[in-house]
Amino acid sequence: MKRDIKYLRLLSSEFPTEQAACTEIINLEAVLNLPKGTEHFITDIHGENEAFEHVLRNASGVIREKVERIYSSSLSEEEIRELCTLIYYPEDKIRAVRASLHRHGKILAWYRTMLMRLIPVMAACSSKYTRSKVRKALPEEYAYIVEELLHEWIEDNRDKRRYVEAIVDSIISTGRADHFIATICNVIHRLVIDRLHVLGDIYDRGPGAHLIMDKLCNYHSFDIQWGNHDLLWMGAAAGSRACVANVLRLCFRYANLSTLEDGYGVNLLPLTTFAMNTYGDDPCEIFLPRENGYEKLPESQQILLAKMHKAMAIIQFKIEKQVIDRNPEFGMDSRNLLHLIDKEKGVLRLDGREYALRDSHFPTIDPADPYRLSDEEEEVISNLTRSFTSSDRLRRHINCFLTHGSPYLVCNSNLLFHGSMPMNEDGSFREMTIRGKSYSGRRLFDKVDQMVRSAFYTREDSARRQAGRDFIWYLWCGPVAPTFDKDKMTTFERYFVEDKELHKEKSGAYKQLKNRADICEKILREFGVTDLTHAHIINGHIPVKTLQGESPIKAGGRLLMIDGGFSKAYQSETGIAGYTLIYNSQSLKLVQHEPFTSRELAVREGIDIRSETKVLEFEEHRRRVRDTDQGIAMRAQIEDLYHLLEAWRSGAIRR
User: Fold this and answer.
1) Dihedral sign (CA 450, 465, 477, 228)
2) Between helices 375-389 and 228-238, what is the axis angle to 10°?
3) pLDDT at 153
4) At a CB cut-off of 8 Å and minimum separation 6, what does 561 contact?
5) pLDDT by residue (tens digit) across 32-41?
6) Is the pLDDT of residue 607 over 90?
7) DSSP string for 500-554
8) Percentage of the chain surpassing pLDDT 90?
9) Which residues, 6+ apart, have CB-to-CB distance to 330 below 8 Å?
């Protein structure tokens, strides 16, 4: 009871009068009856910044849907497309229109038409929010005008319409139309999605991960579930040399230098010099960059990248041995293969057999001490690690991951994580030993969170910080890592060994078990989801092979795999360009996207991403805020406020 009184006294400092407490109760009760906000789920973006931004701007078709609902009977398809394009890309569209409408009178008429069409769309997007929440979404300079337009707009009231038209005419006559239209469009973007969920893998493959992170870090409400590729960059930013080596190797493999150099200012000159001096006469054919769906590089640049690629791969294998030796708990000694190379015969001796090597030119591997970094290799990886740890922009982005991210999230009865739940064949949760203790199920995910943060938030020279860095690398390629969950990562074998049997990686039991509803329900309960009426596991990480007829809907709808190939590197395999989920007050919708062309075409010709929408669940009665996690917290707050009123009225605490 003393503890309750102490809490109520603290609460009374925020609500010092009975009137203040009663007003807050009334406000909260009103909010509880508003429709639930729209959640937007996206995963495995892999650096595709233009497609990502377009999906954000069109809200996976939600904006188009609202425009059609308002104007399907009054506007043509061309007019609807023009209005949607304006909402998606207001500044670009206005520039294009100004260039095409040379007469001053025409552009003024266009301004008036578009503003009058935008106001009902903005009103529709704001209808499920309180005035207070809408006000917070408005830029200060236009807050009063926008509020007037929103709350005075009544289409069938002639007087109100004249009032709105007068405001619009004043905006145009004062020369503020361009800026005001852009403001309204940005308000629509802000209101149409209440919360964005990003289920990992923002990095690698495509060239614009840094641009995606710039956008995300300024987004109004979002969370991130860490993906294996994200963790690799987080580890590099924390100073893990093994993660730095893997990040660079992948960038060279996919010819993705823009994120490294333009995004984060990583200095590649020392590596370039070392690679040319060491592998100058080596064609490095197996290390030529893969096609990435973007402009093909000149042959000379491809050859240079191949040499840098090979140099970094060898450095990586040497450094990983150091991490494995420091952490016997990882159980990854079998991943050390350099000492099994016979350079003279050009074979790998493994398990009593000899396997032909595709490349046996290893000038920096000393047979007497194969894992020792040469002086030049040591200098190269030290300089590159400093580049990562000293990049201010990368530090800002990783802070964003730590502030808004975690290995998993439970939100409104949905369990979100990127990779898998490590399991045994019998459906029990697989255990992992971390620093002498065993963890499984939810406790394993919570320990992952703790270990990752220790790589950033413990003392620089502490053993915990080093253990955290090493553990982040394990999350990239370790057998029981929830973000990997395979028996091994066969990077060396795929590069160097001819026999493709050695390339195989065996997935954990979750890959098959996830198709069973009882297993999915067991996992949901493990994470505290007890009401399974609308509960789902939402996963990324594994591209759904749509071309082969695979469905993203698993276990009778309990699990949704929404990695559909957002990255161009995967689209030949999946046949589409990604899935997103939209969860609003009335339905849960799976949206399947076709490849995005370009921003320029979207503006010039009104070309949108073609999408197919499948309604997974539909309710006749809208879900209200009271039915959400936010509603549970608000109801608890209301109960506390009633206790405060009772304490005042009974004299338990004094005002």
Assistant:
1) positive
2) 100
3) 62
4) 539, 540, 542, 544, 552, 554
5) 999 999 999 9
6) no
7) GGGG--PBPTHHHHTT-HHHHHHHHHHTT----TT-EEEE-SS---GGGT--SEE
8) 74
9) 323, 324, 474, 478
315 vs 251: CA distance, rounded Å? 15
Q: How far apart are CA 380 and CA 376, in angstroms?
A: 6
Quick one: the chain helix, strand, coil %, rounded to 5? 55, 10, 30
Q: Is 267 helix (H, G, I), strand (E, B) or coil?
A: coil
pTM, entire model? 0.94
Structure-token pair, residue 19: 């009137």
Tens of pLDDT along 468-507? 999 999 999 999 999 999 999 999 999 999 999 999 999 9
Bridge partner residues of 35 (DSSP): 624
Task: Give alpha helix (H) positions in 566-628.
Answer: 568-574, 599-605
Which residue type sits at 567? S
In DSSP terms, 624 is beta-bridged to 35
Q: Residue 493 to residues 253, 254, 343, 355, 490: CA-CA distances in angstroms?
A: 15, 18, 15, 10, 5
Q: How far is CA 217 from CA 88, 141, 530, in A?
A: 20, 23, 33
- As given in the structure block, the two tokens for residue 317 are 């294998």
Give the strand order in the sheet containing 414-417: 408-411, 414-417, 536-539, 559-561, 553-554
In eight-state DSSP terms, residue 423 is: B
Span between the terminal Cα atoms of the chain, in Å: 18
Task: Please say whether the beta carbons of 401 and 237 come within 8 A.
Answer: no
C-alpha span between 302 and 209 (Å, rounded): 22
pLDDT tens-digit readout, 201-214: 999 988 999 999 99
Distance CA 373, CA 366 (A): 9
**DSSP 8-class letter at 262:** I
Q: How far apart are the C-alpha atoms of 80 and 65, rounded to whole Å? A: 10
